[in-house]
């Protein structure tokens, strides 16, 4: 709820603070004292149109700051966080300023924010009903949502089922749209994938084959050099059998080992060297044997070399198209086969989706018809209830009805357009609310609607300006009684000039001008019981100390207290 509003430089208000309370708060004061500027300030605070002519003459700008308590886990807190703002112990600070040149700025939770964000938040925070304000409930989508809540569980169950079917229907339609409109592109994709898979399958590559072929090609291309090198190394180790003089490494090493073996027992250090020479001898003997075997195995094979080079050329061609290595080519082929299976199964999928779409369409039509029936029944009850309220609010000939227009297209909430209509007198045709009522009448109509919708429409704060315009006597008492009834479920702030309405308040603020014609902080006073009696007396008789006026004021306060159950 709103806890406090500070207004600076707006109209006749220089600098004033309004401390607000739960329940019904009324704002009164003499004509021209600035009561309406309170509503204007609240309108600015929640994204209303900025009018630089409202800036107080001599002031650079008008500033309105509001302090609200909001649930930390609620939708408002979530939207504030999305805008970059923060709550301070469940308290939200909103500021709106308008310069004399017409520039407008807003801050939300300590961060600058577009004014449109304030208007967006207003839908969940406040309903301002002033004679020049855009009314929240004048918007058809809000009227539909409020009527749905008014209809209660009978509609909510059907609407929940409809919402699930509607979302699935949109998903199915989107999938069908994609499959049918992109058929050519998908066919081309399938052809390319099919060609690639077939080309790779024909080549029958083996994982790691490209690396193995490269090694084999290198070995075959250098077969003569490899054989000569192995033979030369072997002869260096073991000697050339055809040579008259042997000068091989193995023979020389054997001579060294024999020389050391004869004396090794005389010195352990020399024995260790002899052991190392023994190890070297074993290694050299093995190496010589392997070199001989290798030299015999290496053969120049031009036919095999040509086959390897041809195979490598084929794999290289595949690598240029599908992957850097044979393993990458095989991975591409696996993925392509999966995607190809999806594409080739589109026809079956299209048939299945079309069948599901038809089933969902029939389901939606059935649920939409049920929604229309429930809304129609609720609309009749709602229209009768509001009309009854208007009779008590000095509009005995007015009739409120709800027009439900059923279209052919499914929407998120069914096929119905909902619009509340007003016929101010029997001979007048029913018209939309903003066309069928004058300013004062519209405020009373909106009060009647809010009273009927109370509990169904979850907005926590209502603001009414001149809701009692053009009425008096018993009708004024009924207005006060209904505002008090609405205040049992929400915070209600009312600017009024009627004592019959003010008597029902839980909190009473009076706005007074100072000697220079401005409203300052000291000019907004919260009245106690005695102060309320004097103010009501002034509103009744124009004289604060009139005994007759005070007696009448006391009577009004007593009646209102009894009605509220105080």
Structure, described:
By secondary structure, the chain is an alpha/beta fold. The chain has a domain of 116 residues. Helices cover 57% and strands 16% of the residues. The chain has 19 helices and 15 strands. The strands form three sheets. A six-stranded antiparallel β-sheet has the order 2-1-4-5-6-7, covered by helices on one side. Strands 8-12-13-3-14-15 form a six-stranded mixed β-sheet, sandwiched between helices. Strands 9-10-11 form a three-stranded antiparallel β-sheet. A hairpin with a 4-residue loop joins strand 5 and strand 6. Helix 8 runs antiparallel to helix 10. It is elongated. The two termini are 23 Å apart. 34% of the residues are buried. The model has no long low-confidence stretch (mean pLDDT 84).
